[in-house]
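Q: Can someone sanity-check these two? First one:
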Amino acid sequence: MNTASPRTTRVPIQIADSFLIALDDFMRRTRQGRHVSQSVLEMERTPDLDKLRAAAVRVTQKYPILAGRLRRNWITWLPYWELPEPPSGGLPLGLWHGAGAADVLPGSMETTDTQELLQRILMEPLERDGIAFKARLDVVTLKGGACLVAFSWSHLLFDGKGAELLLTEIGRLCEGQDAPYEARETPQPRVTFKEKLLKTKAAINRFKELALIGCHSLGGPRPRQGRGYYRNITLTPEDSARVNSRVDQMTGALFPIAFYVACTARAHDRVFRHRGMQPSGYVVSVPVQTRKRGARGPLFHNQVTVFFFSAVRERLGSIEAAAAAMKQQFAEMSRARLDQSFNALLEVMMRLPSWVFMRVVRSQFKGEICSFFHSHTGAFAPEMTGFAGGKITNAYHLPCLGAPPGTGLFFSERAGRVNVTLSWREGCLGDEERRLLLDQVFEDLFGEKRPDLLHGV
């Protein structure tokens, strides 16, 4: 991350971005690619490519940060975005067609395995022709006239909800709706450096507690250079209703995070026990949205706060006990405003070079970052029913993870259907282990075994 001329147009990062910057740099330095995710739209038919191409150009003109570069101020050493002149060609747009596709787009390339294609795109650089793009679009036509639109994006620039909002914005631009975007970042109160340090005390104490519990990941603390993989399972509306009812009964509609963290911890513990290991506990950082529900933005930056949960062995014996423990932790951390303390700690660390930042993080847990990645992003862009003239039938996120920790489990919902997404780094999770992990997930989601959901995983 280089410095730039003081006359360059600059946009400051947000506090939560600082960890993502350090993580992305860690993945780059350990040759694991970059911290890129995909948001996938499954569609009934191929979108209008003329509309999509025009929108891909307009969105970069409207938001030049999509081709921005990260720099540091050489006086304060704070990171910021350097905004370029908007690229004339717009976001990169790849065209593909599967074997037997009903609609073969002009100039498209054939792919025999759509999942393999998306996994490969996740590992490729987003930059094109010297332009530092932070996102790209790919359209894959399939049999029966169906289609996939994959939006690949850098976690440096936004989180999953931000990606949904930008996809919604691109959809509006496809329909000629180019209204000014008014949402602004929430201003941070001015406090002295001493006040910031005092505010970090609760977070530091929490990290000390977590270090005593122990942080263990399936990938281990050693970085791995293999590829990233994923499996996404979409539940039927009937099964999704059963899951949502079970979550409401166990943790309440206001605390779904508690249930899903518990479910994820127990699934990983199942694999550890299969390996003949019984770690004392697990540590997971869970992002929580700070955007107002239903708001159109802010689009960019990681608009989240973070809670650090622990899962100790004594509470993992049943999903009921684990979920109750997570709900209690969430309530205690909320009352103590630990999210504000974690933010204060990140703000103090923002000036650290990325490699120093990550060394500090990993030193807390003997080289680990956390035990696994996890998020529950809720409903995927419920306001967006179509995209570039095509109806959306399903939508979900596909994160590409680094190691450590090397594995992650993610949940979202689209039009009343729950999506369960497992992501892992090569060498961190074997085939049998993957099935065991998902078997435990579905047992906890439904309260009974569901072998029918494991076909093809």
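And here is the second, same format, sequence then tokens:
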Amino acid sequence: MRLDRRPLLHHVAVVLATMLAAVACSLPTDDEAAIIEPEDLPDALRSDLATTTTVDPGPRSEPIELYLLAAAGDRNVVVQVTREIDAIAGFEQRIGLLFGENFVRTEQEEEDGWSNALREFELIEASVNDSRVAIIDMVALDENGEPITVEAQVLADAVAQLVFTATGFALDDPILAVRILSNGARTFVPTLEGDTEELVNRDDFVNYTAEWVPPTTTVAATSTTQGTAPERDGATDNGD
């Protein structure tokens, strides 16, 4: 006797059809991919966010120490002030801050009566040679821009400011001395020990420091004439 298997096969077919229908219902039926707005994506997946690299340029300016003049009894002494300057500025730009109209006193400096003898001068050229000597070429001009001769005291005040400022610059190789030129030519400079055409440094203007005390003994003044200059021990002329 043979069994009729048709009802069983029909039952299996129904079960399979039901399972396939269930699987089909669980799959997405969209024909096109969904569009996701960029702002809804994580930053790492967004292409609309520009990626930039920040490079630190370093300081654009730095403090610089300059010297003005202050009255101390019957003489002038140098006083230190601070200004800002471009960090890559060279020596000429730095020393040039003191000349003419380049330097503007603060309100406090004006109230204190501090002055700048270099307002009477124009800087022609300034450089530092391999021997660490600052060579500063300058000239005093009148209102019409014509060279003029200034009083010895004014010149001494101006050179004292330059010497203390130049030798005080914070450089890897400090400036050791200064040579002053007037319109390209060597000129006599009044110092504590008399007039000289040679190199000068702070020792020549020690009387411009607040600590200096005038000697009690009388010392004969050293005089010079045009075309001669007193001997200076230990000075090497590197500023020609």
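A (reply): Looked at the second one. Residues 191 and 204 are 6 Å apart (CA to CA). Strands lie at 61-72, 75-86, 121-128, 133-140, 177-182, 185-186, 189-191, 194-196.
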